[in-house]
């Protein structure tokens, strides 16, 4: 489309898939409102624990596995040696970003709260995956580690931010998909010389506004 002709770069959809989904979730969370008992009249926050940590963990690993097809498949070809090498590099960068996001989320949650929060760890992995999705091919292993790690950082600080704003995000979808998706799309400029910061930001804003307006009507 015309964003691509402007130079917008989003290899497998940090914005087109994830930030768009996160924007829709944000609109829904605001319009529908929090679950009963989630926030007190005095402004206090009452966490509602996940019903099944094992199932949440299994779901995360299923997503993690599927992401190899998601990012690797976005190369759209594997008929030449160059394509095969590209897909293998995408696999490696995708996996290391997930690992980095998970480890960073674990370390920060341990530091801030005195124990590792499993849901932070799981969402940290997913945020790392979301962050690398905009450009999983051009980063070095070190760059992919940094990009994914910042995704994990975003989750740990994004969840309490939403609590303060009284936005009830049941599974942390907004920090994982919207916040990390925005970061991942901006991070493209650090490893892909063909991407421009102004174009990336303009496209993020435009797509976000379109999704928020259209889904607000639906909600």
Shape: globular
| Overall pLDDT level | 96
Distance between the termini: 27 Å
Q: What is the strand content?
A: under 5%
Low-confidence stretches: none
Biggest pleated-sheet summary: none
Give helix % range.
over 70%
Our Rg estimate from Cα atoms comes to 18 Å
H/E series, N to C?
A: HHHHHHHH
Total strand segments: 0
Task: Count the DSSP helices.
Answer: 8
Kindly name the structural category. mainly alpha
Short description:
With 219 residues, this protein is mainly alpha-helical.
Write up what this structure looks like.
- The protein has eight helices and no strands.
- It is mostly helical.
- Helix 3 (about 55-75) packs antiparallel against helix 4 and helix 6 (about 140-165) runs antiparallel to helix 7.
- It starts with a helix and ends with a helix.
- The mean pLDDT is about 95.
């Amino acid at each position: 489309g015309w964003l691509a002709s402007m130079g917008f770069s989003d290899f497998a959809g940090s914005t087109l898939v994830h930030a768009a989904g996160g924007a829709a979730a944000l609109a829904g969370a605001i319009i529908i409102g929090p679950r009963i008992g989630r926030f007190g009249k005095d402004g206090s926050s009452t966490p509602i624990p996940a019903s099944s940590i094992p199932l949440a963990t299994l779901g995360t690993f299923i997503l993690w596995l599927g992401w190899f097809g998601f990012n690797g498949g976005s190369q759209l070809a594997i008929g030449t040696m160059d394509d095969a090498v590209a897909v293998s590099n995408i696999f490696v960068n995708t996996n290391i970003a997930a690992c980095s996001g998970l480890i960073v989320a674990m370390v920060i949650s341990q530091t801030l709260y005195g124990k590792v929060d499993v849901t932070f760890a799981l969402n940290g992995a997913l945020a790392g995956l979301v962050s690398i999705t905009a450009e999983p091919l051009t980063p070095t292993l070190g760059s992919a580690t940094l990009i994914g790690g910042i995704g994990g950082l975003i989750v740990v600080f994004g969840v309490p931010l939403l609590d303060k704003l009284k936005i009830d995000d049941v599974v942390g979808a907004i920090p994982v998909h919207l916040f990390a998706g925005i970061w991942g799309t901006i991070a493209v400029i650090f490893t892909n010389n063909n991407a421009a910061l102004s174009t990336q930001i303009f496209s993020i804003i435009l797509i976000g506004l379109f999704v928020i307006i259209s889904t607000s009507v639906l909600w």
